[in-house]
Design brief:
6-stranded mixed sheet, 18% strand
């Protein structure tokens, strides 16, 4: 595994600490550029032309670091090749991240570029949660195991809501549910790829492998057709969206079941966080998930849930579990990691 590398001597560490960090977040559905100042305020920009001369380094959110990358690294040719290799596992994420890296290097060739990995936060997951019950050759030679994703978002939420036993629901274009015990990830719903777990905007989430084998063998789908359907034509898109009773029902049922499973991994539940686009903005999803989890002692303040702005508690006064809505700020986590290498 490559070690975290420091900036080259030609780059002043003090310069990085006092200048902005440009954070490049190339997700599966969007490209976000944020300038993060030393005081951790951030400003979204539309293009590299808006950067100006106050950037000391560029941080790149890389979704899949595999088993190789468990800490941020300065990107060199070797790192770039390994990230490209991992695009075979996460093509919707690592491929656009590499394209964004190329564009950013052209725009800012004279500052260090740092990779910060979404999978790294989940490196603490124990084997009992990370290992698939599959043949040893798959696991030991081919590296098939559960990695987990959305780690930067989960890390931010865990810092904002301090609780011994915390579950974070990152509900955006991609969706995951993570168990955090004393600040460390111990289980999560995504696995070898960002396709496993709860239903998402257009991704299926977990599906019986036997059903997929049936479609390949008996309905003669090609691998490309199956891949496209699972990644782009499934999830809420296939169920009519959140406006559909079926879509809302399946979505919240699976999320609530995942939260309950994570509570089991934690030995109980002290706090529940909703974050990312749906988690922050769709009160009906929060209400329905929490209703399904009432047996855990979760009670919502209905008025607070309807009128919430992020970084607010929405649990009722008598709730045994704290429920909060947290604004996702992955860019701050990335910028911190970049500065920590200086």
């Amino acid at each position: 595994m490559p070690r975290p590398s420091r900036f080259k001597e030609t780059v002043s560490a003090s310069t990085v600490r006092v200048l902005d960090v440009l954070v490049v977040n190339a997700g599966s559905t969007s490209l976000k550029l944020d300038l993060v100042s030393p005081d951790e305020t951030s400003r979204r920009i539309d293009s590299y032309a808006e950067v100006g001369g106050d950037v000391g380094a560029v941080g790149h959110r890389i979704v899949h670091g595999g088993a190789r990358f468990k800490a941020p690294v300065v990107i060199d040719e070797a790192v770039e090749r390994e990230v490209a290799d991992l695009a075979l596992i996460a093509p919707l994420h690592n491929t656009p991240a590499l394209q964004a890296l190329e564009e950013a290097r052209r725009a800012l060739p004279d500052v260090p570029h740092v990779a910060v990995f979404d999978t790294a936060f989940h490196a603490s997951i124990p084997d009992e949660a990370a290992v698939y019950a599959v043949p040893s050759r798959w696991r030991e030679e081919w590296g098939v195991r559960r990695f987990g994703f959305h780690g930067l978002s989960v890390q931010w939420s865990a810092e904002r809501v301090r609780a011994p036993r915390l579950v974070v629901c990152h509900l955006g274009g991609g969706c995951s549910v993570t168990a955090v015990l004393d600040g460390r990830s111990v289980d999560t719903s995504m696995g070898f790829t960002p396709l496993e777990g709860v239903p998402m905007a257009a991704r299926s989430g977990s599906v019986d492998p036997g059903a997929l084998l049936f479609l390949l063998r008996e309905r003669f789908l090609t691998l490309d057709e199956l891949d496209h359907a699972l990644e782009h034509e499934s999830g809420l898109k296939a169920l009519g969206g959140l406006e559909s009773p079926l879509g809302l029902g399946v979505y919240t049922h699976r999320i609530a079941a995942a939260v309950a499973g994570m509570a089991s991994a934690l030995g109980g539940l002290d706090a529940l966080v909703f974050t990312a686009g749906v988690g922050e903005n769709v009160s009906a999803v929060r209400a329905e998930v929490c209703r399904r989890l009432g047996f855990l002692g979760i009670e919502l303040d209905a008025a607070a849930n309807e009128s919430v702005t992020p970084d607010t508690d929405i649990s009722a006064a008598g709730s045994r579990v704290r429920v909060a809505v947290v604004r996702a700020r992955e860019e701050v986590v990335v910028a911190r990691a970049v500065r920590a290498l200086s």
